[in-house]
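User: Design a sequence. Structure:
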């Protein structure tokens, strides 16, 4: 391509990329994301710095777009690039309180074994509205590798990078390599996703298991070998027990079934039905075995979901504007919408497969971004399908590179600094400091909550995640007085938090060398007399008071050590 022709596409795309950022920056007050709203991420003083960074990212995007070798080894390139891109975010704290549930469930398995976990999950092990698979996997990791957050981060990052490769393979199977390759890359064009991958949550693993079930089911429809049918069935089973929200999403398998049953399909009808039945029987038998083993509890969960979670979706929502313009690169959203027109014009029935989950989101008005993380691979496949309309290969590469590096820049230089200013970082820093002390035990004391929607007791597991010391904690119900409509709160589970038995104080075996950690939700909180008496013989050793001054719930940490 001539230099003049390159300039003809470089300048417009570059100008459009910067213009989009400036437009979003001006209208950032419309971003109502509950974690990293642009209204919190940026202020007027940031515009020059971030604009300069984005100009550099466009230059890098152009240089990368001129390279052709990554496409020669697409799976390896996508896996390694996506894995390395997540590494900076391993430094972020656990900013979502749900971590306390999953860590607590996993630690039960680590300490008491798999049989205890399987027997007591949903009983002594508080399960709330969770499914058991991912906490079970986290517990296995803790048991065999050690109770260290880094092992979970490696695991979730590996799952994400594998999801990128699976997305590539789905696109390659349905259409061609280029469609799949771009779709995989576009998963790195979702800034919000970077903030979720390193967390000890279930959303990113759920995305992997759903994508894996879709890919293996498609392959089973095409190949039909018994081993592939079995793999597909097991993948579906894993997706079912990852998270309840995957259940309606698995309706995509019915769409795949119907698409492959069209007259254009190369499969004979009896082969096609046989493969589907084998998969349904195996996955159904596995699911029934687990479901029946805890039937009463699962039915109780479903009832609770219908009366509490379903009713709460409207109150806890985020706008589509926030999700599809601010938290997902606008080029991806526009390309995805345009892809519907392209597919309609081509009468491409396979397009229904990748668009089905997006249709569900719109029809049922699912407006919480964490609930739709699992469908992101299908959404980037839609966007990639639309981008194929750009016939010039170099221009298409440049557009995709701009999307990826624009999003990486926003995530690293805007989102990550905000996350590291959130008060949750105090628990992470306190845990690291405790690891440096010559002690074996850490006694945690919680100050009464003051105008916070969260039970501060859930900060104990979050602190435990970051320290290698034995944590001891006695729950005192007298100091917690939830106010407001806790029954309807999305944080209601924190008030139903149960003190795990492994935090109980064993006075006979308690060590003399102990540090006392006082966690408060207000930097100026008055210390109750009972706690004051406990710490009177200890000296204040370290104070952690970082706060973003955005959220009502804060975790300030003071460490006392003799």
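Assistant: Done.
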């Amino acid at each position: 391509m001539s230099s003049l022709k390159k300039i003809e596409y470089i300048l417009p795309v570059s100008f459009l990329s910067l213009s989009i950022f400036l437009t979003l920056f001006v209208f950032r007050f419309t971003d109502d994301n509950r974690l990293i709203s642009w209204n919190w991420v940026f202020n007027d003083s940031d515009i020059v710095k971030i604009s300069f960074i984005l100009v550099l990212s466009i230059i890098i995007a152009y240089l990368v777009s001129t390279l052709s070798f990554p496409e020669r080894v697409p799976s390896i390139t996508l896996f390694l690039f996506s894995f390395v891109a997540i590494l900076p975010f391993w430094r972020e704290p656990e900013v979502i309180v749900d971590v306390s549930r999953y860590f607590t469930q996993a630690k039960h398995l680590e300490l008491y074994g798999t049989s205890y976990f399987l027997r007591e999950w949903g009983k002594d092990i508080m399960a709330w509205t969770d499914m058991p698979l991912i906490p079970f996997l986290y517990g296995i990791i803790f048991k065999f590798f050690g109770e260290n957050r880094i092992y979970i981060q490696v695991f979730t990052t590996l799952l994400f990078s594998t999801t990128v490769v699976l997305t590539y393979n789905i696109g390659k199977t349905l259409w061609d390599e280029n469609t799949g390759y771009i779709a995989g890359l576009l998963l790195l064009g979702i800034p919000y996703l970077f903030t979720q991958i390193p967390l000890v949550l279930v959303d990113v693993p759920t995305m992997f298991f759903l994508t894996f079930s879709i890919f293996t089911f498609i392959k089973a429809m095409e190949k039909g070998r018994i081993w592939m049918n079995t793999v597909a069935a097991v993948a579906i089973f894993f997706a079912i027990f990852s998270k309840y929200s995957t259940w309606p999403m698995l309706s995509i398998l019915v769409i795949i079934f119907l698409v492959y049953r069209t007259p254009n399909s190369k499969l004979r009808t009896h082969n096609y039905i046989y493969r589907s039945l084998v998969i349904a029987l195996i996955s159904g038998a596995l699911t029934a075995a687990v479901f029946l083993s805890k039937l009463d509890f699962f039915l109780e969960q479903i009832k609770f979901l219908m009366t509490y979670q379903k009713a709460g979706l409207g109150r806890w929502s985020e706008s589509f504007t926030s999700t599809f313009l601010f938290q997902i690169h606008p080029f991806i959203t526009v390309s995805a919408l345009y892809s519907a027109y392209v597919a309609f014009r081509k009468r491409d029935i396979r397009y229904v497969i990748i668009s089905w989950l997006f249709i569900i989101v719109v029809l049922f008005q699912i407006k919480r971004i964490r609930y739709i993380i699992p469908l992101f691979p299908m959404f980037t496949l839609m966007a990639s399908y639309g981008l194929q309309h750009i016939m010039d290969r170099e221009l298409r590469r440049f557009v995709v590179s701009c999307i990826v590096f624009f999003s990486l820049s926003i995530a690293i230089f805007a989102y990550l600094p905000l996350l590291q200013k959130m008060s949750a970082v105090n628990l992470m820093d306190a845990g690291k400091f405790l690891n440096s002390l010559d002690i074996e035990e850490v006694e945690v004391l919680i100050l009464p909550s003051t105008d916070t929607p969260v039970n501060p007791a859930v900060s104990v597991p979050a602190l435990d995640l970051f320290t290698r010391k034995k944590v001891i904690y006695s729950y005192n119900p007298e100091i917690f007085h939830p106010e407001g409509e806790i029954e309807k709160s999305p944080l209601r589970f924190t008030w139903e938090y149960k003190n795990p038995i492994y935090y109980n104080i064993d006075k006979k075996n308690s060590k003399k060398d102990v540090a006392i950690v006082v966690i408060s939700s207000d930097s100026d909180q008055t210390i109750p007399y009972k706690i004051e008496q406990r710490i009177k013989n200890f000296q204040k050793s370290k104070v952690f008071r970082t706060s973003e001054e955005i959220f009502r719930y804060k975790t300030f940490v003071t460490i006392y050590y003799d």
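The first helix runs from residue 3 to 26. The longest strand covers residues 514-520.
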